[in-house]
Task: structure prediction
Amino acid sequence: MSKIIDGLFYAESHEYVKIEGEYGYVGITDYAQHELGNVVYVDMPEVDDEVTAGEDFGAVESVKAASDLISPVSGVVVEVNEALNDSPELVNADPYENWIIKVQLSDASETENLMDAAAYKEFIKE
Amino acid sequence: MENKRTCLYDKHVALGALISPFGGFDMPIQYTNIVEEHNAVRKACGIFDVSHMGEVLVTGPESEKFVNYIFTNDITDAPDGKIYYGMMLHPTGGVVDDLLVYKMGDKRFFLVINAANIDKDVAWIMQHAADFDVTVEHQSDKYGEVAVQGPKTEEIVERILGIPCSEMQFYTCKEIEYAGETIIISRTGYTGEDGFELYGSHEFTNAVWDKLVGSGEVLPCGLGCRDTLRFEVGLPLYGDELTDEITPLEAGLGIFVKLEKENFIGKDALAAQKAEGLKRKIVGIELADKAIPRHGYDVEADGKVIGTVTTGYNSISTGKSVCMALIDAEYSKLGTEVAVRIRKKVFPGTVTKKRFYDKNYKK
Result:
């Protein structure tokens, strides 16, 4: 059973965003890390890069495949999770604790286009 | 078209395997964890369902002559029980398939071919057999096959299956009576580790699977780690390093091509290619970063594309991001600096040997 956390927003491409004030922490869901299997590399943008909702900003690579990361929100990257450079497997261990990028949001209303925990739970059941 | 299923399909489903199409079959890619399965084969013992592989039996007065005509390696006067690796070639030198030829006995050759190429290969073999006094029997539906691989395999096969195998040399086979049928065991594999492959009826294949997996000493392993294992030791996969368009010389497999042999399909093209010198080669590339070069990605140098990645991984055994790639021969010298384009970025690397991990065969 995949872990889903209340209060986060979820995209159909299995990224989440956790909103804290004007910032959003973006990562992949527990469902996504389980589907991918052993994560061996996270391709992350640079600080100050712009990200756009619905567009890719990097990739998560498992042994077998690369999976694009699609940003659920728009804004500027203010921090990347450097720990994932040396320990990409943290994404498997706890994908919600180990977010990938921190974004300064340019449009807070974009979360309206995302699913809440209950809707995402239904979504991954399908 | 509906994919085929092997005789072990129900076992894979019961074990909760991730199933994906491969070579026209629905095959188990992994059971629990590709890294654990990979390491089980490197350090202990794993079992693979390879019943999707094709089998063709060639017999008759001209069987040796015929196999030598369609096969790059030289099987002349082969002792019974010896196994040869090689390719069937197009007249252009491109590869129809790579295969194993088992010399089973007098004028009796057992050919093991890739699942994805079964229809193409059988048609190819039948077409050319028409000119020889041979009998060709397509036996893929008759045989199940498992590969039992890893350093503990010899002891496990002897103790749990009761099949004596410690005396067998690498790349040899024998037929034995087992539970009322004749089965084939060979000291072969596709992992870089010691191991055996067993061919028999579907009942036999299920019985072997149940005994070995049931013992708790042999881990079921999917095709996912079969690919990471073969890749690390530089073994080619048809479709990646060998295709209708890539010759065995370009793939670095010249030792399996006996150009001094009287005649075989593709010989003239390869002799000409050898005389002219290779224009492209398959090499190893090691990246400085952990980004993973994958099949189809461009290889670049001097600001231009010089080739394509054929297979790449973050090697489970070494932790390095490495790939095999078909590139312009002028860049193929060891130590040459090249780069691989991965999504939007270009990652620097160097040309290396394409064996990223040492084989551990019993000679």
Remarks:
- Chain A has one domain: 9-112.
- The first helix of chain A runs from residue 30 to 36.
